[in-house]
């Protein structure tokens, strides 16, 4: 009996020490990455809150974000996850989301932007660094499993891949653009993904990383010099800069979704920190 008691005491002590070490380790890196963000960035006045997500979380939150109003969905290079509205509590995960048939037949190797509509996650897939097969794959939003449906987009128009897509469910459309200095929106039919038209933009928008619809306008996050968020009228092509995120040098702005939350935020963006061991989930109020 004494031996069992001593074993349990030792186990508790070891567990406590491991837990303490992990807490100190996490706290240290939270301090380091937080300091880099505070010193290296210049947050705009409409920043409401931000979440510093470390280590494995920075991988699962590394590409884009979408919402159904009750959950957030995050993409990484290979995975999809679903969380509560705290952005942290994971409810569903598909750690290897790219379907084998798309890997084998088209070289799909990278999930970029995602968009939610009517129970479906629309995911932009790329044959990374090859750019021959820009594909949109459809996933069930409850299970994050592949539905078996996928569509090829125009490789000629989608120059340098398919980093993002945005579903405009009200109009039955899907928007995309070429990666660098996008001169136009590329508009596809939501049901068939047939090319409908291109809409010239009033100014080029560089390196769009993700977008979402809000009050009839398309809002996009970019990896331009100031990691700006733009509003685009998808009918006229009028593009207006809304605000600069001004992230620390060396980091990378990622995607964006729109959800009005009780704290006054509406635009929710992702970015990777300069050390690439953390991600930030930032929440911005609409600029006045």
Could you characterize what this model shows?
Helices cover 18% and strands 43% of the residues. It has 288 residues and is an alpha+beta fold. The protein has a single domain (41-284), classed as Neuraminidase (6 Propeller), CATH 2.120.10. The longest helix is centred in the N-terminal third of the chain and has 39 residues, at 2-40.
Give the key terms.
alpha+beta; 4-stranded antiparallel beta sheet; single chain; 3 helices; globular; 18% helix
Shape type: globular
- Strand order across the biggest sheet? 1-20-19-18
Overall helicity: 10-25%
Cα gyration radius (Å): 20 Å
Low-confidence stretches: 4-9
Put simply, the count of helices is 3
CATH class: Mainly Beta
Task: Write a brief caption for the model.
By secondary structure, this protein is of the alpha+beta class.
Lay out the secondary structure.
Elements: H1 2-40, E1 47-54, H2 56-60, E2 64-67, E3 72-75, E4 80-83, E5 90-94, H3 100-106, E6 110-117, E7 120-126, E8 135-140, E9 146-152, E10 166-168, E11 173-176, E12 182-189, E13 195-205, E14 208-214, E15 217-222, E16 228-232, E17 239-244, E18 252-258, E19 267-272, E20 278-284
Antiparallel strand pairs: 1-20, 2-3, 3-4, 4-5, 6-7, 7-8, 8-9, 10-11, 11-12, 12-13, 14-15, 15-16, 16-17, 18-19, 19-20
